[in-house]
Fold this protein.
Amino acid sequence: MIPVKLQLRGFLSYKEPIELSFDDFDLACIAGDNGAGKSSLLDAITWALFGKARRNDDSVINNTCREAEVIFQFLYENALY
């Protein structure tokens, strides 16, 4: 699996919509202050793929939002999902 793009809105610490493209790098280090949303990026990918994250209920929705959305695009065996 090769990550292509991750879009989040209302998911954990990401209240406002964000888009992360994986096209610009081959290797990355996720660094930042506590509460900045580092783990939320990995939780979003897990949630999109398996419907589960560290939190498996509505607590993945940012407490100031009514809903959460995660769109994860990736390549697998030359097919885009």
Summary: The chain is about 15% helix and 25% strand. The two ends are 10 Å apart (CA to CA). Helices lie at 38-50. The chain has a mean pLDDT of 92.
